[in-house]
Each structure stands twice: as C-alpha cells, then as structure tokens.
C-alpha cells in the first residue's frame, strides 16, 4: 500500500470513533422547579429518584436533571420556569405547591409538566379534571386541604372536654373558604365553638396568636396554605410560646418543633411525580395520565414538644403514629 493511501485509510479509521461519538444521543433533561430551597429535601428527592428508577431512569446515567429553586420567593418562579423552557428540557417537575406548576404552565404549552401539590389542581387551574387533565399538565396531589377535618378529629383527642377550637387561616388563600367550611361543619356536629384566626403576614400572625389566647380555644388546627410553609418556624414558635397544642399540615413543621401533623406522605408524592416523569420520557402524554391521589398518610408526633407543653399523649393516639420524635 502506498504511503498516501495508508495515511488516508488510517485517518478514516481514526476519525470514525469521533464521528460515532458525536452521533450518540444526549441524555434527556428533566427540569425540576421548586418553590423552596434544597434544604430539607433529601427524603423528597430520594422519593423522586425512586419513581424515576421504577420507570428505568437513573440521574446521571440515562437522564439529567436541571434544578431550579425559588428559595421561597414566589416572584422568582416565572423567570426560573422560562429558563428551563429555554434550555430546553423534556419535562418539568414542579413541586411543593401549585405556584411552580402555574409558572411553568404560563411559560409553555408544549413541554409536559408534572406537578406535586397539596391543594386541588382543578380549583387551582392546573388541569381540567382529575381523571382527564387535558393539555400538557398532570401530576400528584396530596389533598392537604381535604384533611383539615381529619386533623381536627386527631388533635381533639388531646382535649376531650374542650368547648372551643381555633383554626389558623390565610384570608387570601385559594383554599381557605373550603377549609373553614369543613371545620365549621365538623365543630358544629360536636357542639363546639370555632374561632378562626386570620393572618397573611408575620405581624398578623403575632396578633392572631394573641387573639387565640383570648378565645379560650383548647387546641389549634393550622389551615393548609403555602404562606404558612414559608413561615412555619415562626408559627411553631408561636404555638410553643402560647402553650397551645397544634396540629400542622406539613411534616417539616413537626421536625422544627411543632407538636404533630397528619398528612399524605410527601416523599411518596414525590415518588409518584418521578414515575410520571419517567412515563412521559418514554412517550406517555400528560393529557392521558390522571392526576394521582395519595395512598399513604403519616401521623407524626413530637414527644419533646408534648413534654414542653406539659401534655400527655394518649396511648391510643401514640399507637396510631407512623413516626414519633423523642
């Protein structure tokens, strides 16, 4: 073989792996948009990745994830959603309230969106219906709003002789009216007085708890609202200083020192989101995937806080607890 032909042949052979490498498909990219921060998200993200794994996806191996955190500043969500759309991503997972999903929905009608929220996605304007979402949006709801009466049933066991119950509510919250209605019905059936303490700012929270102390309420039910997630440490501190037994709608509040919570498992809800993201990557359409509802519920009790409040938790209630913090 002539030297020129040999070099040409060698050059072609040497070039082949580079060409083939350039033709390898890039990893699909999932956008992850969250209203809060990465702090405290270890269990939730583990659930999300578990869901992805159930559909055959593993982060860094056959799927990439772009994380965007609003750090509890809702006004940042629109820009973060637009950033994910520009990348672009194949799917957007929007978590821990309807706000990230609404921002993503406003940013794109083409990229599939899988939400994770505690409220009613139909009333929030995310989907047309639970069974037939329509459009490019579907997801999982924990229905924290629907559980307010159940929380009342649980915490009322701490004060069987109570005549008045307090509820903390955000007057401008989308789901507040429904929750108050449910609580009014539940307390009326037991012949109890319901005092609704309204707050939509830190100053109003302080005033609300001062009013709760004057109301004679024996226990407090925290209404479900994103505002209270942002202020959970402040609210927990107020329940302790006011020495009022309270039940919360988020597990993180109990980890921060709150007395108890009853809610659908948030980690399992994130797993459901991961499953739907994986299915969409495989070709399923959001419009054909009904909104997933919770199947696992957790009662968490903080015995340290009970001791601080001078409470004895009934053994029957402790037996029902899925987690006890000692």
Description:
This protein has 326 residues and is of the alpha/beta class. The chain has 2 domains: 145 residues, Rossmann fold (3-Layer(aba) Sandwich); 146 residues, Rossmann fold. Helices cover 43% and strands 18% of the residues. The chain is built from 13 helices and 12 strands. The protein has a 7-stranded mixed sheet, sandwiched between helices. Strands 2-1-3-4-5 form a 5-stranded parallel sheet, with helices on both faces. Strand 3, helix 4 and strand 4 form a beta-alpha-beta unit. Helix 2 runs parallel beside helix 11 and helix 7 packs parallel to helix 9. The protein is elongated. The protein starts with a helix and ends with a strand. The N terminus is likely disordered.
Structure summary:
The chain has 326 residues and is an alpha/beta fold. Helix content is 43%, strand content 18%. The longest helix has 20 residues.
CATH evolutionary superfamily of the largest domain: Response regulator
From the alpha-carbon coordinates, what is the Rg to the nearest angstrom?
Answer: 24 Å
Domain module tally: 2
N-to-C terminal Cα separation, in Å? Answer: 82 Å
Please write out the topology.
Elements: H1 3-22, E1 29-34, H2 42-54, E2 64-69, H3 77-86, E3 91-95, H4 98-107, E4 113-117, E5 137-141, H5 148-155, E6 164-169, H6 176-189, E7 193-198, H7 202-215, E8 219-222, H8 226-230, H9 232-242, E9 246-248, H10 251-255, E10 260-264, H11 266-281, E11 297-302, H12 303-309, H13 315-320, E12 323-325
Parallel strand pairs: 1-2, 1-3, 3-4, 4-5, 6-7, 6-8, 8-9, 9-10, 11-12
Antiparallel strand pairs: 10-11
Helix pairs in contact: 2-11, 3-4, 5-6, 7-9
């Amino acid at each position: 073989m002539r030297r020129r032909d040999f070099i040409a042949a060698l050059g072609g052979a040497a070039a082949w792996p580079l060409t083939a490498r350039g033709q390898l498909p890039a990893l699909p990219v999932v956008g992850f948009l969250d209203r809060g921060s990465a702090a405290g998200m270890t269990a939730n993200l583990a659930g999300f990745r578990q869901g992805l794994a159930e559909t055959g996806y593993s982060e860094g191996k056959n799927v990439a994830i772009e994380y965007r955190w609003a750090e509890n500043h809702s006004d940042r969500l629109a820009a973060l959603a637009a950033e994910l759309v520009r990348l672009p991503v194949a799917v957007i997972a929007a978590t821990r309230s309807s706000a990230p999903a609404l921002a993503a929905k406003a940013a794109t009608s083409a990229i599939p969106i899988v939400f994770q929220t505690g409220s009613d996605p139909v009333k929030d304007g995310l989907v047309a219906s639970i069974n037939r979402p329509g459009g490019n949006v579907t997801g999982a709801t924990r229905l924290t709003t629907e559980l307010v009466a159940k929380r009342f049933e649980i915490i009322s066991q701490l004060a069987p002789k109570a005549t008045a119950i307090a509820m903390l509510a955000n007057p401008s919250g989308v789901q507040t009216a429904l929750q108050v209605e449910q609580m009014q019905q539940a307390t009326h059936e037991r012949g109890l007085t319901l005092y609704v303490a309204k707050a939509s700012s830190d100053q109003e929270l302080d005033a609300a708890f001062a009013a709760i102390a004057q109301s004679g309420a024996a226990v407090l039910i925290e209404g479900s609202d994103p505002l209270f997630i942002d202020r959970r440490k402040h609210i927990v501190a107020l329940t302790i200083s006011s020495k009022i037994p309270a039940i919360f709608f988020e597990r993180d509040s109990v980890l921060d020192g709150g007395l108890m919570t009853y809610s659908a498992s948030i980690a399992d809800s994130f797993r459901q989101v991961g499953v739907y993201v994986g299915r969409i990557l495989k070709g399923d359409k959001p419009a054909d995937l009904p909104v997933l509802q919770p199947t696992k519920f957790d009662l968490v009790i903080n015995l340290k806080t009970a001791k601080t409040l001078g409470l004895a938790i009934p053994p029957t209630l402790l037996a029902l607890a899925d987690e006890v913090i000692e």
